[in-house]
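In this supplementary section we document a worked example of the pipeline. Step one takes a protein sequence of length 92 as its only input; no multiple sequence alignment statistics are reported here. Step two produces a three-dimensional model, which step three serialises into structure tokens for compact storage. The input and output of this example are shown verbatim.
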Amino acid sequence: MKKFLSILSALTLAAAAQAGCGKTVTTEGTLKSYDAEKKEIVVAPKDGKATKITLTPETKGAEDIKALIGKAITVEASVHAKTKALTVAAAK
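The serialised model returned by step three reads:
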């Protein structure tokens, strides 16, 4: 029984460490460029410095990124990994 409880607690801790907090940060600006080889976009906000953001296979909306170059976009990323995009969409 002790082995079972110790394995169960170890798995619970491992799952909690992988879950993340779910907090996101949103960047709004103009999509300046897209590097297909590196899977990076450069977003220039209205009142700040341009930021490089990496697209991952899990990024929603990344398949239409070439059509958004030069247009206003919204990029959502995790607070813990601000340079990896979760979603990319045209600004409303």
